[in-house]
Structures are given as C-alpha cells and as structure tokens.
Write the structure tokens for this entry.
Amino acid sequence: MSKSALNMAGKSMSEELRSRGIALLLLHQGFVKTGITGFRGNINPSDSARALIKTINVKSLRDSGSFFNIDENKLPW
C-alpha cells in the first residue's frame, strides 16, 4: 500500500472510530537515522519515538484523522 493510500485509509477509519470515542492520528516520524535512510536522518529512533509519544499524549478526539509531525504541528494532507 502506498503512503498516500495508507493516509487515506487512516482518514476513513478515523471517521468510524471517532463515533466510538476512539482517536486515530496520522503521524510523521521525521527523517530518522536508520539503515533504510543510510543513517542520514536528522533524528535518532529513540528521540523520534519520544516525540511521537508526546504528540499522542497531547492530542484528543477532535484531532482524530489529522496528520501531525513530531513537533505536534498539524500537516496538510
């Protein structure tokens, strides 16, 4: 599944889950230093994970279906 298709599936699923009181967030982890990126990323995996957890913890049901980066900023999609 392409990234765009995955985002669209997340947006669609968020509508159904919102009615059940469940938030679904679409998250961009950043350019992470991993083997896939040739370790050229600008953030290490543990820092990315911490930032994503922080973002998840400050968002609510009203944010469901929205796309956020690791700085908690809403991204257009």
